[in-house]
Amino acid sequence: MFRKTAKALEAKIAHGLRAAEAFGAESPEIGLAEGIVAGTRIATHMGWRPVEAIAVGDEVMTFDHGMRPVAGVKRSQLWIGGGSCPVHLQPLAVPVGALGNKTAMLLLPEQSVLVESDMAEAVYGDPFALIPAAALVGYRGIDRITPHQRVEVVVLEFEEDEVIYANGSGLIHCASVHADGIAALFDEEMPSYEALPLEMARSIVSGLIDEEETAHAYAYAAE
Question: Is the pLDDT of residue 84 over 90?
Fold first, then answer.
């Protein structure tokens, strides 16, 4: 994974502004495209708990570092503007098992998730790739849905960037509580995950689809 740079951060902000303008929003802060949807169950020291029940200080199981205390919790709504939720903010419905999740779940489009991929290993030297959930549309039945009721979003933060377990083996990225600080932009020693750009992420997902189709073809031929 690569460290975020000031240039990358500026690009993300600019992208948010353009997306908001394209859909007629007065401000990109009207909606939230990143975070964990309420109802998602997270692995903690007290077992599986809904994300909205987690508080600062609670310990959560992480992918790389075992149990880690939550350093910050933020809450918001997916969409608080007038009218229907814009397409670019619509959550993705993830069927059971699509990402190792034992129950169906919702993901916000800019929420980063960790996937394992042969292509990622071949291209980046790491079998795990962090990708925005929006890239998963079309993979194992994952698709956008139009929310017809209020959607609460919870953002969990840790001292360092972490990946946590959701609804089973689903892997969700959570940022460092210091991620917005100026020092974080220049501290090369601060551990960090970096999500792939959307187009690169879509290539990874296309590779995942091809891998499954090839596996199915071999299985069919062997019957």
Answer: no
Q: How many domains are there within the chain?
A: 1
Read off the pTM.
0.80
In the numeric block, the tokens 């090369």 are attached to 188
Specify the pLDDT at position 56: 98
Is the pLDDT score of 214 beyond 90? Answer: no
Residue 200: which of 139, 145, 134 has the closest Cα? 134
- pLDDT for res 8: 43
Distance between CA atoms of 208 and 169, rounded to whole angstroms? 17
> What are the two backbone dihedrals, phi and then psi, of residue 7, each rounded to the nearest 5 degrees?
-65, -40
Burial of 195 (0-12, 13-18, 19+ CB in 10 A): buried
Mapping DSSP onto H, E and C, the string for 76-103 reads EECECCCCCCCHHHCCEEECCCCCCECC
Its domain, for residue 49, covers: 31-178+195-222
12 pLDDT exceeds 50? no
* CATH number of the domain that residue 49 is part of: 2.170.16.10
